[in-house]
């Protein structure tokens, strides 16, 4: 036989003193009290009622809360199903950064072709700029993958034709090309910071984290390394020291 426990109630008097337990209930109750009768005894009236939505301790109701998101799922085949809280401004800015990376890659590729000529023959510099070109291309492709992941559309833009000659009367070709590379790395870093600002302005925490973790730290390292190369080339001048610098790059690439 099942026994139902007797309900108990605790209440306080007008002085805030606990007067003991009378009954309890799974459903909420309302209480009214007044003073009357002999000895000014306190009389308590209890009115029981049941809440339409009992407190269960549940803080997440998936089938209720998902209704809003369900209404946002696109039904047009051309629209992305994965897109969520990804603004048009972020999408456009990301496509612009893809174009930046491809343009820098194209310039580095032109430098590789120049230093690989038989009448220039600086194989260390050629190898360095070839690897730099591939790295910038990988950066662009990583942005393209991210664009698709967020539900955006990759739109490739025009790439300008780079220089094909890097000889400089005063600096020489090696220093001139390396100073140009340093300027390009700083410009790329500035463009990445602009992209980060767009993401922050649109409260896109995921995009800001992606830029910080995948690009900004690496960009600072590149700027530092190429700055050292510029300083070394300025020290050795245009003569025989350039060949030794080139051999150093060749050894670093093969290490």
TrEMBL record:
InterPro entries xref list: Ferritin, Ferritin-like, Ferritin-like_diiron, Ferritin-like_SF, Ferritin_CS, Ferritin_DPS_dom
Pfam families: Ferritin (PF00210)
The reaction(s) this protein catalyses: 4 Fe(2+) + O2 + 4 H(+) = 4 Fe(3+) + 2 H2O
Gene3D superfamilies assigned: 1.20.1260.10
Function of the protein: Stores iron in a soluble, non-toxic, readily available form. Important for iron homeostasis. Iron is taken up in the ferrous form and deposited as ferric hydroxides after oxidation.
Cellular compartments annotated: Plastid, Chloroplast
Family: Belongs to the ferritin family.
Domain of life: Eukaryota
Coiled coil (UniProt feature): none
Molecular-function annotations in GO: ferric iron binding; ferrous iron binding; ferroxidase activity
A biological process term (GO) from this entry: intracellular iron ion homeostasis
GO cellular component: chloroplast
Span of domain Ferritin-like diiron: 84-237
Positions with a binding annotation for Fe cation: 101, 136, 139, 185, 219
Protein name: Ferritin
This protein's UniProt keywords: Chloroplast, Iron, Iron storage, Metal-binding, Oxidoreductase, Plastid, Transit peptide
Record EC number: 1.16.3.1
Lineage: Eukaryota, Viridiplantae, Streptophyta, Embryophyta, Tracheophyta
Principal cellular location given in the protein's record: plastid
Organism: Sesamum angustifolium
Known partners and oligomeric status: Oligomer of 24 subunits. There are two types of subunits: L (light) chain and H (heavy) chain. The major chain can be light or heavy, depending on the species and tissue type. The functional molecule forms a roughly spherical shell with a diameter of 12 nm and contains a central cavity into which the insoluble mineral iron core is deposited.
């Amino acid at each position: 036989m099942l026994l139902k426990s007797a309900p108990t109630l605790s209440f306080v008097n007008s002085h805030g003193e606990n007067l003991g337990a009378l009954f309890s209930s799974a459903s909420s109750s309302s209480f009214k009290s007044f003073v009357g009768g002999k000895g000014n005894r306190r009389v308590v009236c209890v009115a029981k009622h049941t809440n339409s939505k009992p407190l269960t301790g549940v803080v997440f109701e998936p089938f209720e809360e998902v209704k809003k998101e369900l209404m946002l799922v696109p039904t047009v085949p051309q629209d992305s199903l994965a897109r969520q809280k990804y603004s048009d401004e972020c999408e456009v800015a990301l496509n612009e950064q893809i174009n930046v990376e491809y343009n820098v890659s194209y310039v580095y590729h032109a430098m590789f072709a120049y230093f690989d000529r038989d009448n220039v023959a600086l194989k260390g510099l050629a190898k360095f700029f070839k690897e730099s070109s591939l790295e910038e291309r990988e950066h662009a492709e990583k942005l393209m993958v991210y664009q698709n992941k967020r539900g955006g559309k990759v739109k490739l833009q025009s790439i300008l034709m780079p220089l094909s000659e890097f000889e400089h009367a005063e600096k020489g070709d090696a220093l001139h090309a390396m100073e140009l590379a340093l300027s390009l790395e700083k410009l790329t870093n500035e463009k990445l910071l602009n992209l980060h600002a767009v993401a922050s302005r649109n409260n896109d925490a995921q995009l800001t984290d992606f830029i910080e973790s995948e690009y900004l730290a690496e960009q600072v390292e590149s700027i530092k390394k190429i700055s050292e190369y510029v300083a070394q080339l300025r020290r050795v001048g245009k003569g025989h020291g350039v060949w030794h610098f080139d051999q150093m790059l060749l050894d670093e690439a093969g290490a």
